[in-house]
Hints:
Blueprint: H1 47-58, E1 63-67, H2 73-86, E2 90-95, H3 120-123, H4 126-139, E3 146-151, H5 158-169, E4 174-180, H6 187-194, E5 199-203, H7 208-219, H8 225-235, H9 239-252, E6 255-258, E7 261-264, H10 272-282, H11 287-299, E8 302-303, H12 304-310, H13 313-321, E9 325-330, E10 333-338, H14 341-349, H15 353-369, H16 377-387, H17 392-404, H18 408-420, H19 425-437, H20 441-454, H21 458-476, H22 481-489, H23 494-512, H24 514-521, H25 534-546, H26 550-557, H27 573-588, H28 592-606, H29 613-629, H30 632-648, H31 656-668, H32 672-683, H33 691-707, H34 711-728, H35 731-757, H36 765-777, H37 781-794, H38 797-813, H39 817-831, H40 840-843, H41 845-850, H42 853-863, H43 868-875, H44 879-893, H45 901-905
Parallel strand pairs: 1-4, 1-5, 2-3, 3-4
Antiparallel strand pairs: 6-7, 8-10, 9-10
Amino acid sequence: MHTFGHDRRGSVLSSPYRFPQRRTVRLGGAYTDLDSGVDRWPVVARSNELRQLTAALLARRGAVISGAAGVGKTTLAVTGMELAERRGMSMARATATRASRSLPFGALAWMLPADPGDDRLSREDHGDLLRRYGQAVIDAAKGRPLLVFVDDAHLLDDGSATLLHQLALSRAATVLATVRSGERAPDAVVALWKDALADRIEVGLLDAAAIEELLVSVLRGPVDDASARQLIDRCRGNPLILRELVIGALEAGALVEDGGLWRLEGDLRPTARLVELVVLRLGDLTGPERATLELVTLGEPLEQDELAQLADPASVDALEQKGLITSRPDGRRVQVWLAHPVYGDVIRVGISAIREQRIARSLAEVIEAAGGHRKDNLRLASLRLTGGGGSAELLLVGAVAARTRHDHSLAERLARAAIEEGAGFAARYVAAEAAHYQGRPEQAERELAALAGDAVSDSERARVALLRFDNAFFLRGRADLRLLDDVAEGMTDSLWRDELLSRRVVGTAASRGPRAAVEEASTLLPRPDTGARNAARMVMAYSLIRLGRLTAATEQLGPSADSAAIPALDEPWDRWALFGYRAAALIYGGRLREAEQLLTHTYDLVIDQPASQARAIVARWLAVLHLEQGRPISAFRRASESYTLFRQLGQPYTSRWPYGHAALALALVGQADRAAETLAAHDALDVAPLVPNETDILQARAWIASAAGDLPAARAQLEEAAELGEQIGDLIGASSALHGLARLGRAGHVAARLTALVDDIDGNLAPARAAYVVAVAAADSTALDQVATEFENLGANLYAAEARADAAVLLRRAGMTRQTAAAEQKAARLLSRCEGAVTPPLQTMTARARLTPGELDTAVQAAAGRTNKQIAGDMQLSVRTVESHLQRAYEKLGIAGRHDLAEALRNQPTA
């Protein structure tokens, strides 16, 4: 029977977490705890089992805990034993082993009296011996109620099992035992639950949500969804395997904490302990059985017919009966897999390079003979890569297949093997492209420059030039427009010439912004469309979006933004970029619920992809969506996932956007220092400025300053962002910045400006921003209530909560107590959906009702630790005026001085 569990997939938790501080991981022992040094992992998702166990122990009935190896039977039992010990019970604990089973009373020997001598153990009447041993165990408790715990009781010898049964039958002790499912246990142990002497408690595998809960509990922080999914898939619900995988990943540096989020940045490898456990599980394999297991390990999934030609049929049957391999129908065929992925990890370690080559060659020959190369070129090419004998054509086809699956490392190995076998331009191009996608721009450029000299057709010259541009632009932030122009000038193929010219627009957008990009792209797109010019469409669409022309952008993008518009997983990056812009048009138009449905569905499709641009793009737009929804922690998780993926792809230029989103998200939960660190990482990318990104970065800097209490700096950054947005045509960025200024107390200064601006922006979000600013400037609580409802209907809960809070302040000033309480309760309800967001409109509700704007600004900065001189300089006031503001603030807030300010200002709405 398969004892390590089966495949159980499920959704991964997306609940908010507190961001942890960076810690040094202490390794060692069975448990890598980051703080406490506890030796076992916590019990999670076992509330029902723990309730059963507690009831059984308190009633002195006892319990037998049953389950597969590694599911946490012992952990659950020890938790129950500790509970019993706290209730005053005496403890006796033993562990049965295969070795102790060969000895009479071997497992319980330590708690039994020594044999008086000679061979009395064999001569004494068995009944008398049991009574004497039982009395000795009872006497050791010294009159206290006794709990006897035996781990792995299915391995007990008959004498120990009978003694355990007698203790339970006589009620002289409460018996607690664990047994492994599928293992034959002594009759006396089985009788414990069959005769109702103890409750039987089944412990199953953990589902996906429980696995992530366990990971979060152990690591003391959230885990990147894709990393959690990888661990969930590999452990298959087994906590023991999960523990060893996590420990091994920590020790190898493959599991790292980055900005408060844990993620895998390397391969999962089994620890020595896990290898030992799996070896025990594999047991004593015969030679044919081991050979069959090696075949499946290197070739899975193998079709049953393929395996039958290479393996002993009896060994296949034996391995399936032992639960080491499993067969699954696949249409009319039957495929054979390993029963658990970790078996392959362990078995692969024991296969020598020579034997691996021989097995791979044998598998390839069988597949080729059966015509299998027509079904799975990548599998066959991979086997030939290991075993040898692959043709240049096969290896190249495999390389292209690996590229479409975003496995760039394998694509490169196959392409270079094809080159060695005589493949030409196509294989060299795939190899250079793989180097580009793995973040090696210098190598990619050298190889592409050589390819440019060997290109003979317009297609070859254009493809090389386009990749050289992408390599320079996305990896180093350089737009080499002359390279595109020179190649385009000599083109006779109009399709490829236009593709080159359209890529030129990318450089214009990066250096001059949306308005200039639309002007240049519009000269290309009206031509008769005899082929795709995705770069021009891509730039035009995004530029139209930032200009606020969302309807025109949607028309430019073509298909409607529904599931039918989702590209196939093997589509190139530009198709995925266009998909992302469809989502962006929904987000910036205020259609947040539609955007969420589209993006979350797509994310589920791409999450299992390795370092792919598709996943990075979807994660980036999910981050933007979550920011507008007021879900900063979710935004941080998706943004950090996106910039990590772009980094892994060697694309620092593209990672600038999600770095900005991540910094803003951290600022919105009050993590000013961590947000500043994230933005410093953005600045350290050391690539050329990206003009369309600048308004977002300036706003991130502003909210970091706000979180640190530096309101003058925050307002200055937002003003700069608004001016830049208006200058380059980024009206989406400008409207967001002006809204931000109103949220930081400058509504009267920006109301007319934002009202004029939103006339040029499609959708419902920008008008809602303007309505909010006008209502705040007019001190109109009724209008604020209306705009809060509008924001809530859009799904923008943080903006809605702020509007409710502003209304509550005005109502409190007017002495309308009942209406104030209602507004505050509505604000609290909205804020509860915002994952711990803290912004000035929410933090200072009571203070704003009592203080003037000047007093409030001064108090906020003083509470953040700024000196009177610093405050005076930023606000262009005298130090004496600052002191006067503070003194009046102390009096109005009823506090003694500066040291009480932070607490007095920290009052979010409560229901």
